[in-house]
Prior knowledge:
Blueprint: H1 10-41, E1 48-52, H2 53-68, E2 73-77, E3 84-88, H3 89-105, E4 112-120, E5 123-130, H4 162-172, E6 176-182, E7 186-194
Parallel strand pairs: 2-4
Antiparallel strand pairs: 1-3, 4-5, 5-7, 6-7
Amino acid sequence: xxxxxxxxxxxxxxxxxxxxxxxxxxxxxxxxxxxxxxxxxxxxxxxxxxxxxxxxxxxxxxxxxxxxxxxxxxxxxxxxxxxxxxxxxxxxxxxxxxxxxxxxxxxxxxxxxxxxxxxxxxxxxxxxxxxxxxxxxxxxxxxxxxxxxxxxxxxxxxxxxxxxxxxxxxxxxxxxxxxxxxxxxxxxxxxxxxxxxxxx
Length: 200
């Protein structure tokens, strides 16, 4: 379109360039998600170190808050002490970012997203709770499936890979992601991993 005629019309050319840029970003994001899944399928080695999962959750929350731009309240509740566990910081941060991105995306303006880290019985975890649109019961068993996209109320772009990646990361650490949701009231996602690392 730019080649044939839009280049002569500055306004149309600008709209075209913005559309190309948006699509390029979407395609790059999709490629990155597919690569993340492929690496996980191949059993890519985790970079395991003892570290504070609360600090990782706080960092991910701060970035999500900035991205929300004030439309949604995004808050992190700091625990009384550090919660040290053995995990791959980059990949757990990626999983938390996916959960937070979903929470912000599906929470209407004026809503809230709350995040906190916790530990119990040799497990550590991070909970992400939102006051968003919620997920129907019939869709809950499928939301972690690759390319699965929920009903139109929750379909706002994306290829349906984010939650599959988050679950893959949790399982690579010997952990899980649980979800509880009530349509119209919100959802709660809980990422949980063994405190001493995979296979412990």
